[in-house]
């Protein structure tokens, strides 16, 4: 190893005792049970449901309470769990129902129980790690209470006095709140978000803020996430797509109010050329309230941005023949006089067309007004400070796929042929498939993001291809039939043919081949997948291929729940194995507080180990072993070597 590096490291470990202490500490950590991993997917802006799942650890908090307080009734367990989930609100409710003396008694009992639960939840961690999770202002007090022993009575009055004094000084609420968030943090060591934070739901920005403050998380990009990243990186067609989706789901306030992007130029264009069209009216859920004027404005904007999108897509298809998407230049297939389209050898009538801005001789050409609008939108998008924070976090914490603790985490699919072989795509003259293809896709995403001033370069166009291309690992379908859904009544044209992956992933042999392709052990590993909602209502099983494939998109998004019959899956992976948790519809925080109801229901056992998995066997463990190797070299280089020289044994270090 470079001796200059060891010299720099020696400035931190300036005494032999420091190196030895750190080595002992790291070696000890390797033998702890691995922490609990929490997997979520396809959040689609459903912030409140996501928050609740995060706070309850997909039922892990309540399980800890049940394991610790074995004699409690279900009502007691539910009430205490609710306090851990929403401590501020629960404390207010309890205070209203009790007199001061009774409330003080309740506070004392509750603090003692919270301390016990904190201690129970922290048993897999070092004291140092637990200390970092504690509320800063109460670290000393909590540590005194956490590590107390009842073996001797010497300190019994001392501990009691601490709690009584906390209550008399009016600090009990703050302490309970701090302990509640500490417990939430300790029951989940690491969070995986397996794609699609954005689109459809109303609060993706709040999810991003939560993730940015979360103690340990990573993200596997979903197709909707890459759409937003592409727009910020300079892709006008990605920008048009995301605005269209926001209009479709009545979420334009995310763009305008949250990220500060001015939509007035787009509205002016829409008012000039477009009228009311049923196909372009926003999808409205029950709690949405729109005036007729607002509904009409969104409908017009929806049309204006959709037409801009179709034109921009045609431009990419023409300049990137290697994408093989010429058949999707549908505006060139339209008979504008007859209002029909020739598609796949058939002629279909068109409904509710809005082609006022289309040049029939050059359908892909933007009007000057449209060019000005999309340029202004892109400028505003790239100069949104809040969006910049969120997109940079997505890039820095995210990846297209992740090998983690022996499992493959991927949002969409691995493009396959019908026979199960890896589907090949020629990219800049090189035939790529499997892991190599996905690695190339990720390089293009990062390159596009690094050069946002380049709006029509290959990397930026490739980001759009990931959204809609046949060989995209995020899209996973032959073609996206957006145009057909708007303008053609015949539903046979709406069908989007899935990549063979989605049928073949039921087979264990296919999943094993995929795990090998990504350098993972097929006997130990699993593929953890999102993107396609599991239709539990129709009997679909999220656990496939004899447990090798686990699909955790069960419909967080309200738009999918009528189809799936549930409100999402999450996955827990602790030192004993994996458990899949099915969730019911999340009504509100108030419902949880008043009724003690929870939204997780069915736990399905995925994989149970005969022995507990240690930190040594994880990604974190491998990094720790690298640190240990470096410290071993430092110990020899700075201290033991010196000792050999001083004792006239200069060659003894060769025995090490």
UniProtKB/TrEMBL annotation:
Cofactor(s) required for function per UniProt: Mn(2+)
Gene Ontology MF terms in the entry: fructose 1,6-bisphosphate 1-phosphatase activity
The keyword Hydrolase is annotated on this UniProt entry: yes
Keywords, alphabetical: Carbohydrate metabolism, Hydrolase, Manganese
Biological process per Gene Ontology, one example term: gluconeogenesis
Record's catalysed reaction(s): beta-D-fructose 1,6-bisphosphate + H2O = beta-D-fructose 6-phosphate + phosphate
Transmembrane segments: none
This protein's pathway: Carbohydrate biosynthesis; gluconeogenesis
Name of a matching Pfam family: FBPase_2
EC number(s) from the headed UniProt entry: 3.1.3.11
HAMAP family assigned: FBPase_class3
Family: Belongs to the FBPase class 3 family.
Protein name stated in the entry: Fructose-1,6-bisphosphatase class 3
Organism: Sporolactobacillus terrae
